[in-house]
Amino acid sequence: MYSVVKMVKNTHRHPANQALHCIGAPFYIIGLAMIFGHFAGMQTNPVMGAAMWLSAIAMFVAGHKIESNLGSTTPVLLFRLLSKVVCNLVAQRVHLLRAWLGPVLEH
After folding, report:
1. 7 by DSSP, 3-state: which?
2. Percentage of residues in the chain with pLDDT exceeding 70?
């Protein structure tokens, strides 16, 4: 969890980027809630929800463009984090498998 917080702090330093994220975050959450609410039977407008959600994403991308780090948007960061975790898990499994099969393969 600490690595996620560290990534967020390092990629949101410019005041304009921080402002755009502060404004966009409620739009993102409310937009998703309106979309999901519509499909859950609530009387919400999914088109308005989608417009709010896409507006929030546009604000996030604009903020990262201002900061010149488009590669630091959430999907890219999550992919990097997950790929690191998966690589570590695979490496651990391979190490354990080699340790377990080592004596068997030596004979």
Report:
1. helix
2. 87
Phi-psi category of residue 68: left, alpha or beta, with phi > 0 → left and psi -120 to 50 → alpha: left
Model confidence at 106, in pLDDT bands (50, 70, 90)?
low
Report the distance separating Cα 44 and Cα 101, nearest Å.
Answer: 58
CA neighbor of 6 nearest in space, from 93, 69, 81, 98: 81
Q: Which amino acid is at 22?
A: C
Half-sphere exposure of 40 (CA within 13 A, CB side): 8
* Residue 89 structure tokens: 């898990």
- The predicted model scores a pTM of 0.63
**DSSP-based three-state secondary structure for 10:** helix
Return the domain boundaries, the chain. Answer: 1-70, 73-107
Q: Rounded to an integer, what distance in angstroms lies between the CA atom of residue 7 and that of residue 5?
A: 5
